[in-house]
Amino acid sequence: MYSVETVPAQAGPATRQVLVASHLGKRFGDRVAVDDVSFEVAAGETYGLLGPNGAGKTTTIRMVCGLLRSDAGKTLIAGRPVSTTATAAKKCVGYVPQDIALYPDLTARENLRFFGRLYGLHGKALNRRVGEVLDLIGLSERGRDRVESFSGGMKRRLNIGAGLLHEPTLLVLDEPTVGVDPQSRHAVMESVRAFGAAGMAVLYTTHYMEEAERLCDRVGIIDHGRLVAEGTRRELVAQLGEHDRIDLTATGDLGALADRCRRLDGIDRADVKDGEVQLLARDGRRLLPAVLEAAEHLGTPVRSVEVAEPDLEAVFLHLTGTALRE
Questions:
Q1: Nearest Cα to 231, choosing from 240, 14, 268, 12?
Q2: Which of 105, 128, 211, 275 is most buried (CB neighbours < 10 A)?
Q3: pLDDT of 274-312, one tens digit each?
Q4: 127 Cβ contact list (under 8 Å, min separation 6)
């Protein structure tokens, strides 16, 4: 359903980088809101900007979308320069703001038709696209109902739908699950996951750790206007030098199993405690097959396995010196 635009040849090597933001900066009087922020988002990638409220996430994406003039740096979208007046780059962007941007006295279909016309869609193409988007966001049966009758989660989904009408190359979502119930939040996150799988580049801002871990291929941690780290979850956790923990519940000679596991490359510690074999491992999921093979070889049947990995909360605390604040 999505047509991902190929970056023009003049944009550089065929890395299919849809968004390239370089050294962005923004001041509001004496306050530095964004300080030398750079990142890239490729086609088919969901990139998360993770940080507390007031960290600079919204200011950053407003500059990326050309809604706010940057004081420093530049942005390219599909190889086209972004500014507050540049229309070519903006045509590639579907921007979904944090606040609901819908007309409550219009129906869902009327809202989408209105925004579709703003994107230059007309006639059969507009009708087709409105129907596709309503189906995509799961609101086909409510298309003729006024938005004022919708729940918060339904409004969020329709808000996202308005940003999808013109089949953008880059979808930018600013805190899209704020204030919605758990069921609607799950529906929104599943939709976002599908966008990336379909080849769309997605820039996703959030202050929820679990959303960043669940949805994002790479995460940029932003605090006090600076991008303090970025990478995959595994790459960010590796900065801490922490280990995964593997807990095995098994029957038989647990001491022998711990001793065998201790000899495996990547297992740094193996203990028997409370009827379990507890392992500290580098990349526990990769090592798990070798651990289970060792247990089978020793004749100690494994009844349950749990792999606990360090999370982004620990990374954020390490990098900023504070837990993620609301």
A1: 240
A2: 211
A3: 889 999 888 888 999 999 999 999 999 999 999 887 778
A4: none
User: Is the Cβ–Cβ distance between 284 and 307 less than 8 Å?
Assistant: yes
- Give the residue from 291, 286, 318 showing the smallest Cα distance to 305: 291
**Contact (CB, 8 A) for 289 and 326:** no
Please state the pTM of the whole predicted model: 0.77
8 has pLDDT over 60: no
Q: Is the dihedral of CA 230, 231, 235, 236 positive or negative?
A: positive
Residue 130 token pair: 């409105």
- Listing DSSP states for 241-306 in one string gives T--EEEEEEESS-HHHHHHHHHTSTTEEEEEEETTEEEEEESSHHHHHHHHHHHHHHHT--EEEEE
For residue 325, is pLDDT > 70?
no
Output Rg (C-alpha) for the chain, integer angstroms: 24
**DSSP assignments along 117-160, one per residue:** HHTT--HHHHHHHHHHHHHHTT-GGGTTSBGGGS-HHHHHHHHH
